[in-house]
User: Fold this.
Amino acid sequence: MTDNAATAIDNPRSTVVRRRKGVNWEKWGWVYMRASGVLLVVLIFGHLFVNLFAGEGVTQLDFGFVAGKWASSFWQWYDFLLLWFALVHGSNGIRTIINDYSTPPTGTGIRWLLTPHGIMKTALVVSTVVLLTLGTLVIFTFDPCPAGSPADLLPSFCSVAR
Assistant:
């Protein structure tokens, strides 16, 4: 008969679990992915319905359609929410992939930044911030009829061009 004490596996629930103090970012990232995914389904199907099915369908999509749509603050905020939820949702997914498939560095500071893991995460954060900033600026500063522009360069629906 063999010695069972040497081959026995400890019960994993019998060990003391030490929890780190502070915010559990992985848990909140997981919760965000589920909540934003549900919200994105609603926002995306609403966006597709208005742009592709309502009115004249896909043939209505042009500069004038977007300009008319963004004349309403409702559509500006709708597209703003769609942009932010979709981009942060996608970036969080890429962050998870980086964490799963690259070796986390042991150093801190500049040594951390120079590792492939640090370079990928830094590039992700920078690209996310740049795209969110540019997208937000486009949505809220879009003006199809800027004051002082030559009338021949303005679209036909601008009052200056008539």
In short: The domain at 25-143 is CATH 1.20.1300.10 (3 helical TM bundles of succinate and fumarate reductases). The chain has a mean pLDDT of 85. The chain has one domain: 25-143.
